Amino acid sequence: MAVFAIFLSLLLTTTLFSLSHQQPPLDSSQQQSLYHILHSLNPTVPWRTLFPDDFCLSAPHGVVCDYPTQLNQTPHIVELSFGYVSDETPNPPCSSNATLNFHLFTSFPYLRKLFFYNCFNHTPITLSPPLSFPSSLEELVFINNPSFISPLASLFQNLTSLRRLILIGNAFHGEVPSQIGGFLNLEEVTLSRNNLSGEIPASLGLLKKLKVLDLSGNKLEGCLPDSLANLSRLLKLDLSFNTFGCRIPESLRGLRSLEFLDLSFNRFGSFGVPLFLGEVPTLKEVYLSGNFLSGAIPEIWENLGGVERLGLSEMGLVGNIPVSMGMYLKNLSFLGLDKNNLDGPVPFGLLENGGEINLENNNLSGRVALSRRVGQKLKLKVAGNRGLCLDNKTGCESGGVLGQLKACKKTDVPDAVVFSGASSLLRFDSLTLLVGLGSVAAGVLLAFTGL
């Protein structure tokens, strides 16, 4: 049996070797253009010496050809990736003085993916329009190329097949061109950490296949267009760290597939936490920190049991932390409520499964009473709340972050109660009421509730 397996292996190797020698060579224009590109990106490497043969038979990592299904078909370069990422993906490295004539890419009529990582850091690279990438291009990815200085509109030529547009950490500037709405095959548009300005074009709402829209870390402004609600397949919407204003449009309730929403650190106005969030049960991560939303935390959590991370920091929130957050947000692993004006007790059922909760710099009060089991796996930040104190009777060690709290005295406000379920909710409400009742009234209430 082993001999037969060896025979099959040798037969397969011989067949592949024979096919490789019968395969027509790569088109010479593609071969020469790729030599020119490699030399421009890194002239210190002797590319012609290292790779003297057909690039489709022997090529550096990141150069991918298609494999013809018939012997007489000519191969084509379909993927080009440049810039060392890791040992697992050792693409051709770019030198510190890398430059490039992008018109060379017209030599690759079957190119599907073009990728540049950390290639253009010193010598300014400007795309001179009209720039025409191959119409076959499906993925265009430029990451961390800060000297890539060009209007974003200069890229949008002949890209009707484009599925993924990822431009992160470059120096593209100008407005997001309205013609982007004409590339109906787009599934991802990530334009984060550039120098884009202006407003979001309403034409983005035409991209019915879009699953990811990330425009974070730019200088975009104005109101969000209602047309974004037409993106019914959208999974991620990240518009953080811009200067968007106006009101967060209620039309976003139409994003029925949305899992990730980040609108943090913009200038959205004082209309409170949007109530429509409670109508998007697919949400897993929500970040609204650093806006001017203010108001009380609304009761919208019943349908948001899948939320795992929630950022509501630095928003001017007032009032109590709703007990319902602890009842329904059972999957929560992070909650940011710091730098607000919240008061009252803390319903620690919020993170009964552990995780991180940041309540720093509010006006919260009451006893912090965590069991040892919960305390060991819960990262709790409570500095800047003078009304909170630590109840040592629970057996939770007072070191670490909890060590910032003073020990509770007998005269301190009663416990902020750990709860799970409706009966616990009743107990929490009852004990809160007891704070302001006399001894007789308190005794009557205790007898009535059975506490």
From TrEMBL:
- The primary location reported for this protein is membrane
Record's subcellular location: Cell membrane
A GO CC term assigned to this protein in UniProt: apical plasma membrane
Superkingdom of source = Eukaryota
Asked if the keyword Repeat belongs to this entry, the reply reads yes
Sorted alphabetically, the Gene Ontology BP terms of this entry are: pollen tube growth
Q: Secretion signal: which residues? A: 1-22
- Keywords linked to the UniProt accession: Cell membrane, Leucine-rich repeat, Membrane, Repeat, Signal
Q: PANTHER family attached here?
A: LEUCINE-RICH REPEAT-CONTAINING N-TERMINAL PLANT-TYPE DOMAIN-CONTAINING PROTEIN, OS01G0149700 PROTEIN
Protein name stated in the entry: Uncharacterized protein
Its source organism is Sphenostylis stenocarpa
